[in-house]
Amino acid sequence: MELRITDVAFGGKGVARANGKAAFVPYVIDGETVSASITREHKKFLEAELESIVTASPHRVVLTSDAAAAAFTSTSITNINWP
Q1: Which CATH number characterizes residue 10's domain?
Q2: Which of 18, 66, 73, 74 could covalently link to 23 via disulfide, CB atoms 3.0 to 4.6 Å apart?
Q3: Does residue 49 belong to any structural domain of this protein?
Q4: Domain region containing 43
Q5: Count of domains in the chain?
Q6: Residue 30 near residue 4 (C-beta atoms within 8 A)
Q7: Predicted model pTM
Protein backbone atom coordinates (compact mmCIF):
# COMPACT_ATOMS: atom_id res chain seq x y z
CA MET A 1 0.00 0.00 0.00
CA GLU A 2 1.19 3.53 -0.70
CA LEU A 3 1.59 5.77 2.36
CA ARG A 4 2.48 9.46 2.79
CA ILE A 5 4.78 9.97 5.78
CA THR A 6 3.66 13.06 7.68
CA ASP A 7 5.76 12.93 10.85
CA VAL A 8 8.46 11.00 12.70
CA ALA A 9 7.53 9.42 16.02
CA PHE A 10 9.68 9.03 19.12
CA GLY A 11 12.02 6.16 18.27
CA GLY A 12 12.44 7.20 14.64
CA LYS A 13 9.59 5.46 12.84
CA GLY A 14 7.67 7.43 10.24
CA VAL A 15 3.98 8.12 10.84
CA ALA A 16 1.29 7.83 8.16
CA ARG A 17 -2.48 7.24 8.19
CA ALA A 18 -4.05 4.07 6.79
CA ASN A 19 -7.51 2.60 7.33
CA GLY A 20 -8.29 5.33 9.88
CA LYS A 21 -5.30 4.40 12.07
CA ALA A 22 -1.76 5.65 12.57
CA ALA A 23 0.74 3.48 10.69
CA PHE A 24 4.37 3.32 11.82
CA VAL A 25 7.03 2.64 9.16
CA PRO A 26 10.77 2.32 9.90
CA TYR A 27 13.61 3.81 7.81
CA VAL A 28 11.60 6.72 6.34
CA ILE A 29 11.67 10.51 6.58
CA ASP A 30 8.69 12.84 6.90
CA GLY A 31 7.55 14.13 3.52
CA GLU A 32 8.22 10.85 1.72
CA THR A 33 5.73 8.69 -0.11
CA VAL A 34 6.49 5.01 0.37
CA SER A 35 5.22 1.59 -0.54
CA ALA A 36 4.76 -0.49 2.60
CA SER A 37 3.03 -3.64 3.75
CA ILE A 38 1.14 -3.94 7.03
CA THR A 39 2.86 -6.47 9.30
CA ARG A 40 0.78 -6.10 12.49
CA GLU A 41 -2.59 -4.55 13.22
CA HIS A 42 -3.30 -3.31 16.73
CA LYS A 43 -6.51 -1.82 18.07
CA LYS A 44 -5.38 1.79 17.53
CA PHE A 45 -2.36 1.59 15.21
CA LEU A 46 -0.62 -0.40 12.49
CA GLU A 47 2.98 -1.52 12.06
CA ALA A 48 4.31 -1.66 8.52
CA GLU A 49 7.42 -2.84 6.69
CA LEU A 50 9.03 -0.57 4.11
CA GLU A 51 9.00 -2.05 0.60
CA SER A 52 10.29 0.93 -1.38
CA ILE A 53 10.50 4.70 -1.41
CA VAL A 54 8.20 6.08 -4.10
CA THR A 55 9.10 9.76 -3.61
CA ALA A 56 12.15 10.57 -1.50
CA SER A 57 12.40 13.52 0.86
CA PRO A 58 14.75 16.30 -0.26
CA HIS A 59 16.48 15.69 3.09
CA ARG A 60 17.39 12.08 2.26
CA VAL A 61 21.11 11.53 1.69
CA VAL A 62 22.57 8.57 -0.17
CA LEU A 63 25.72 7.26 1.50
CA THR A 64 28.44 7.07 -1.15
CA SER A 65 31.13 5.22 0.78
CA ASP A 66 30.82 1.48 1.45
CA ALA A 67 32.59 2.04 4.79
CA ALA A 68 30.15 4.80 5.78
CA ALA A 69 27.16 2.70 4.73
CA ALA A 70 28.45 -0.29 6.72
CA ALA A 71 28.98 1.85 9.80
CA PHE A 72 25.42 3.18 9.78
CA THR A 73 23.25 0.26 8.68
CA SER A 74 21.38 -0.02 11.98
CA THR A 75 19.76 3.42 12.02
CA SER A 76 17.61 5.46 9.69
CA ILE A 77 18.69 8.87 11.01
CA THR A 78 21.95 8.68 9.07
CA ASN A 79 19.98 9.12 5.85
CA ILE A 80 18.84 12.60 6.83
CA ASN A 81 20.72 15.77 5.91
CA TRP A 82 20.75 17.45 9.33
CA PRO A 83 21.06 21.27 9.37
Answers
A1: 2.40.50.140
A2: 18
A3: yes
A4: 2-58
A5: 1
A6: no
A7: 0.76
Task: Supply the Cα-derived Rg of the chain in whole angstroms.
Answer: 13
Residue 70 vs residue 18, higher pLDDT: 18
Across the range 42-47, mean pLDDT stands at 96
DSSP per-residue codes, the chain: -EEE--EE-TTS-EEEEETTEEEEETT--TT-EEEEEEEEE-SSEEEEEEEEEEE--TTB-----HHHHHHTTT-SGGGB---
What pLDDT digit, counting tens, does each position of 21-34 carry?
A: 999 999 999 999 99
Q: Is there a domain that residue 20 lies in?
A: yes
Beta-bridge partner residues of 52: 35
Percent of the chain's residues with pLDDT above 70: 75
Question: 68 falls in which pLDDT band (50, 70, 90)?
Answer: low
